[in-house]
Specification:
By secondary structure, this protein is an alpha/beta fold. The protein has helices spanning 18-30, 49-59, 74-84, 103-113, 130-146, 163-170, 179-186, 209-223, 226-254, 263-296, and strands spanning 5-11, 36-42, 63-68, 89-92, 117-125, 155-162, 190-197, 303-307. The protein folds into two domains: 5-224 and 300-307, Spore Coat Polysaccharide Biosynthesis Protein SpsA, Chain A; 226-296. It has ten helices and eight strands. Strands 7-5-6-4-1-2-3-8 form an eight-stranded mixed beta sheet, sandwiched between helices. The structure holds uridine-5'-diphosphate (UDP) and magnesium ion. Residues 94, 96, 98, 200, 205 line the site of magnesium ion.
Length: 314
């Protein structure tokens, strides 16, 4: 029998928090008034997370584990969880308890009012570095400037989606998954629940700068072609500028002033233009890389093991 609510919890090296999040999520879901399942997606953790999850699944019939063969990334883990979820409503929440599980009850109330997507909007972020806050703010603003799909700012992946939204997301074939953008893209009736983002319960962030940059570039390139158009604008502007300068140089030559002045200035111009060209090539390369990824058509993830399902894979 399928559950009413499915909670999807991506976990990567979360041995310090997993027991506590299982406890808090179970307590909250017991109050939800419906049958529920907790789907933990172990994203190739190198610590004791899978052992702990296996043990949790053996003692709690609500808990299930999908374990990847290696680390495939947060967004992929969420996608896998949605594919395994059977509930009428699917809730995605981080394992680290930064998003308070108690907010799920408010989300369920909104869902019962008839909303198909209820996302958590962060009013405040506690215990995160100033650098993270500033970059996050900057990123959401830039993203909105560049994309045509309206992706709400300061909203993470903590959200509830209805079965029909989950099915729509499952039908999207792309490999570079920027889940929160895809949720905006599919549409449906959406609303927000505001909450204060807590500190991590334990452990440290699994999003080092490298992953943050990749995440930001995934978000922008999967939802916008504008970076490609920038080269047209920059190119146009520079050509116009060069044309005007060319006329100036010709006039100087014709009317007797020497045009041969300054090796430095020609060097500066040449270096500048080369830099611009390389940046533009890089942007094009980024998109080509993405096309290549999609063209290979590899599966999004490989499941090594499952626990708690009727037909477990070992
Ligand atoms: N996570 C994951 N795979 C990764 C990185 C992170 O499944 O490669 C999970 C992680 O276990 C957590 C969630 O994604 O449940 C959010 O990660 P984290 O809390 O480290 O990010 P932050 O809150 O600092 O942005
Ligand atoms: Mg976190």
């Amino acid at each position: 029998m399928s559950a009413l609510f499915s909670v999807v919890i991506p976990a990567y090296n979360e041995e310090e928090v997993i027991e506590e999040s299982h406890k808090r999520l179970s307590a909250v879901m017991e109050q939800s008034g419906g049958d529920y399942e907790l789907i933990f997606v172990n994203d190739g953790s190198a610590d004791k997370t899978p052992e702990l999850l296996r043990e949790i699944c053996s003692r709690d019939k609500h808990s299930k584990m999908v374990s990847f063969s290696r680390n495939f990334g947060h967004q992929t883990a969420i996608t896998a969880g949605m594919e395994y979820a059977t509930g009428e409503a699917v809730i995605v929440i981080d394992a680290d308890l930064q998003d308070p599980p108690e907010v799920i009850l408010q989300m369920i109330a909104k869902w019962k009012e008839g909303f198909d997507v209820v996302y958590g909007k962060r009013l405040k972020r506690k215990g995160e570095t100033a650098f993270k806050k500033v970059t996050a703010r900057l990123f959401y603003r830039t993203l909105n400037l560049l994309t045509d799909v309206k992706i709400p700012a300061d909203v993470g992946d903590f959200r509830l989606i209805d079965r029909k939204v989950c099915n729509a997301l499952k039908s999207l074939p792309e490999r570079n998954r920027y889940v929160r953008g895809l949720v905006s893209w599919v549409g449906f009736k959406q609303t927000a629940v505001e909450y204060v983002r807590e500190e991590r319960f334990a452990g440290e962030t699994k999003y080092p700068l490298r992953k943050m940059v990749k995440f930001a570039s995934d978000g922008i390139t999967s939802f916008s072609h504008k970076p490609l158009k920038i080269s047209i604008y920059v190119g146009g502007f520079l050509s116009l500028f060069s044309f005007i300068y060319m006329i100036v140089v010709i006039c100087q030559r014709l009317f007797g002033h020497s045009a041969i002045s300054g090796w430095a200035s020609s060097m500066a111009v040449s270096l500048f233009f080369n830099g611009v060209t390389l940046i533009m090539l890089g942007i094009i390369g980024e998109y080509i890389g993405r096309i290549y990824d999609e063209a290979k058509g590899r599966p999004l993830y490989i499941v090594g093991e499952t626990a708690g399902f009727n037909d477990d894979k070992h």
